[in-house]
Amino acid sequence: MDKGADITITHWTEHVKKLGRVFIYNNVLWLSYSGTGIEWECDGQFEIKLAADDLVNSCTQLNASEKSIHYARYAILQDDVKIVDKRMDVASRVIRFTAEGHHVYRFIKLSESADSSLGIVSLTDAEGGIEGIRPAPAARLKMEFIGDSITCGYGVEGSLSETYTTATENVMKAWGYLVAKRFNADYSIVSKSGAGIISGYTDTGVRNLDNILTGYYTKMGCSAFGMDGMKPSDIEYDFSFEPDIIVVNAGTNDISYCAPQDPSVAAQFGQEELKERKKLFYSVYKHFLEEIREKNPFARILCVLGIMGEPLNETARMAVNDLKAEGDARLWWLPLTDQDPANGYGTDYHPNERTQRELAVTIGDYVEKILRKEA
Fold it and tell me: How many CA atoms are closer than 13 Å to the CA of 9, on its beta-carbon side?
């Protein structure tokens, strides 16, 4: 029998703090969304067993090179210092680690749900049991971040000369994770690259209905690859995590549909058509905020937009202000300015590490004002 094989998942998962929307399926704890993971304390050695999803185990549509773009990337931190950084390119893996003294460990998924998911089969202590594993303390503040590729950390470690891969995507270097770290908060992240409010990213100006963020908000993930056929998007989220602060950074991809930046694309539709698209964005964005409020009646909600383009800032501001006028007193709007080219860019013109850090400071400062006002 494998070490720890007699320890059921319902037993060992009681000994860890869960990060984000993790879920159990087929006796495995699955991590799909960016930043999902577990955190625990222990003395000495631990052993963690991992499992890959269907991307690695059964996908036949992609060849080996194509699969390598999407392998789930993860890290293990000891006392907030990274000691492991790998991608799940095999069906299973066992990681053993030994250290002197007492430490806090965090296992975190760095890449996004759209690419792949990652399973934790078991976690055991130096004795091959679970008694030496204890949950990390719960934080006083809880935060949730809702967004797209910017929130995932898409290409944050890449450059304009590179194409996308999970090897350069790192949620720990994205604004949301950095804001949570600043406030020492427990967090949940719901984000998907290319996703929009009324249209996912489109380079033709034709509406992309296959990548709508609002469709994933109530789900445990959004991966094209499942776990033995079951996809994270098949599983409804129970909203058991009750955030004190929610930051919504959504709408960037809708710019490509509502206000195409390529003049030749915009000219195909005309100003009246584009005005109607902005009206639709206003309506659906407002409705999405109402849905977030319904699920989180006591949360403070901050809406931001503009770090990769400002054409929809005014439309989003109007939706937020109208909801405030209708009685939502715990709703705020923070316009962002387009990223500074002098900072450089990550992959596909996404924010690099410097811009992400600056964004985290801007949003974090505003969150601090909200917390002081509500204290």
Answer: 16
CATH of domain 142-374: 3.40.50.1110
pLDDT tens digit sequence for 26-47 = 999 999 999 999 999 999 899 9
How confident is the model over 334-357, as pLDDT tens digits? 999 999 999 999 999 999 999 999
Q: Where are the beta strands (DSSP E) in the chain?
A: 17-19, 23-25, 28-31, 37-43, 46-52, 73-78, 81-87, 92-97, 102-109, 118-125, 134-135, 142-147, 186-191, 245-249, 300-305, 331-335
Q: Is pTM, for the whole model, over 0.90?
A: yes
- For all residues of the chain together, what is the average pLDDT? 95
Task: Please list the residue range(s) of the chain that carry CATH number 3.40.50.1110.
Answer: 142-374
- CA 325, 327, 328, 332 torsion-angle sign: positive
Residue 362 to residues 156, 175, 182, 195, 342, Cα–Cα distance (Å): 18, 9, 12, 23, 18
